[in-house]
Amino acid sequence: MKNSMKSFTRWNLRPLVLFLLFQLGGTLGWAQSPTFEKAEPFYPNSDALAEEEVIWGFLNVPENWEDKEANTIKVAVCVLKSWSKSDDPDAVVFVQGGPGASGIQNIRTWLYHPVRETKDVVLMDVRGTGFSEPRLCPDLGEEFLQILAKDQSVEEDERQKVAASLLCKQDLLNRDIDIRGYHSQAVAKDLNTLKTELGYDTWNIYGVSYGTHMSQVYADQYPEDIRSLVLDSAIDDITTYYSKNTSNYMGSLRKVFEKCENDPECSDQYPDLEKVYYETIAQLKDEPLTVKAKKKMIPSGEFTYNAEDFKIAIQQALYRKSLIEIIPLLVYQFHDRNEEALGNLVEAFSSLLGMDYGVYYCVSCNEALPENSNDAYALNAQQYAGLQGGVSFYGSDFKVCDQWNSNTTLPSFTSADSTAVLKAPVLVFSGEFDPITPWENGQRVTEKYANSTNITGFTYGHTPSFTRIGKNIATTFLEDPNATLDEDTFLEADAIDFAKGISLNNGVASMGNSLTQVNPLFLGPLAIALLLMIGFSATYLVKIIRKRYTNLSDALVRGSSLLVALLGITTLVGLILALLKTSEQNFYVLAFGLPEQFNYLFTLSLLFVVLVALLFIYFIISLKKIQERSVVFSFIFSNMLIATYLLYWGIV
Length: 652
Hints:
By secondary structure, this protein is of the alpha/beta class.
């Protein structure tokens, strides 16, 4: 009987043991154990961060969670500790979008966020991005910018984009990187592991843009990890994320057209805005516009806008309220082919492409594009005849992924329909003008969850939770996820104020860039000239009042120099103050000029330059009659230097 029991136990436990080992292997699928290792600060020279309690480190995890022999990768992590100094604080985890954008690079957004009063903020660079190792093709965005800059057809743009993307893929394969390991389900496992390694029992997930899809996948897989869930600019259905891209864009843009039409001043200054928008597309399709660009961004020094570049420029403007307010102005500047002003937009394209595009295509081609149909995308775009096709910046991803996925076995994913299992409170933000994840998404996402609240960010575009109002709402929710929120709080936001009455002057942007870059070598002479002018002006004013100059030529040249210097100082200071005031209202207006109320400054600038020239001529003519010529010349030269800066910037 005893032997019989041993035999029974041995043979009946074996299936159980094998089952448990199988489950464990299926869960981990990796021979090593994940670890968290602390690291040196990613921003060692930041004084602001040096004053904060911050944990920097890397989460060591398998590149492919399903492969026992997988490589180890490092996921970069930054923990901004709560100001409360609590021994057991709650945590908010920021999941960035893109896919392919860095979460840690948003550290300044979170550094003084009110949620830190009681909570740690955990920032993570999703595998393959930012400070994580390895990074996947961080320079591919720059290659795309060079492609967009060329004067060539949409088809050639797409061909070169596919070729550049495939070179990226080949580079990843050559580096023994498993491109099948980069997707939302892998990120979900990273998050679950990170929670354990950092010692949190539960935490609050805060996803934005594509990060909302990753956050929802995480919520599906590990609902017990989540105390609350914030989804800002949410993806409601990954199967229509691309196929509805055009209607999402045009639905938001039509709101701008309607709002301008209903604004008497806007409709008077920018009549028939929608018609002009479509005319501009047709115009640029036939005659692309080439503008000058900084060679540090475009080696050729030129960027050619075609119809597709125009469409993506307007689409990106819908992301931010301050850009929404210049869309009418922007459409008309493209229509009027203002080369100098539009050259300032090239930097905006540069920032648009500032992601790790290797991750973008690993994630998109793994899980998004296979669920979307190119035919459905084309059919959706056909609703807008004047658009002449969808936005090829997104449409070309179908062709990239067709090639990217060739000879690659895609991972299999579980359905995302299980979101109802999450019982934790959910807060959803959606922007009124959001062109990529429109406000209707927020309504549909809210319906998925049993305990959810939808907040519409009226007057805002993408990610409205990072506005002043949005931060207050998010903080209230994160402090008490069961609190009753005012869903109409954003109605208190300032209304859209379209940029009107702008005096075009391309020198304004040049001057603004010079002053914000604070280059001592460039601005040093300007500062010295100002100091000399102020010093000489004070000295001459005293001497003139005391009638120290009896020689008529001396008195005339010094008096004239004094008046010209005062005009120059007034003009320069006035321009700086105008720049500051305009930037406070809408920074992007400076790309085109200044509001009409500052027109007098352009007149003063021209008058100053003319008077400086006349003063110098008079000085040369009267040179022999003037005492202390070198001193007088120094004063006049200071005026000439200020005039030179105004001419260099293009103010005059």
